[in-house]
Amino acid sequence: MIAAAQAVEHYEITRYGTLLAWAKQRGLSEAEGLIKETLVEEENTDQILSELAEDAINPAAAT
Ligand SMILES: [Fe+2]
């Protein structure tokens, strides 16, 4: 389940990364700020899921 959730996060990170590049190129500073904020949220969620898997779920599943 964590792997599936991370696949979604990774997809979102790629999409927001593209949108951020487009917003920068077009000089859409308000959109750029909102997209960057969302991108950071997605990256943080991905990190939390990695820590959850590595610190708890994967070791428990291996026993
Ligand atoms: Fe997400």
Helix/strand layout:
Elements: H1 2-26, H2 29-62
This protein binds fe (ii) ion.
Q: What features would you describe in this structure?
A:
- The protein is mostly helical and 63 residues long.
- 94% of the residues lie in helices and 0% in strands.
- Helix 1 runs antiparallel to helix 2 (29-62).
- The longest helix is centred in the C-terminal third of the chain and has 34 residues, at 29-62.
- The two termini are 18 Å apart.
- The structure holds fe (ii) ion.
- Fe (ii) ion (FE2) is lined by residues 9, 12, 42, 45.
Order of helices and strands: HH
For the record, the count of structural domains works out to 1
Shape: elongated
Structural class: mainly alpha
Strand proportion, as a percent range, falls in under 5%
Question: In terms of per-residue confidence, which ranges show pLDDT below 50 for 5 or more consecutive residues?
Answer: none
Q: Total number of β-strand segments? A: 0
Biggest sheet record? none
Work out the helix count: 2
Q: Over the alpha carbons, how many angstroms does the gyration radius reach?
A: 15 Å
Mean pLDDT: 97
Report helical residue fraction: over 70%
User: Hetero groups bound?
Assistant: fe (ii) ion
Give the N-to-C terminal Cα separation. Answer: 18 Å
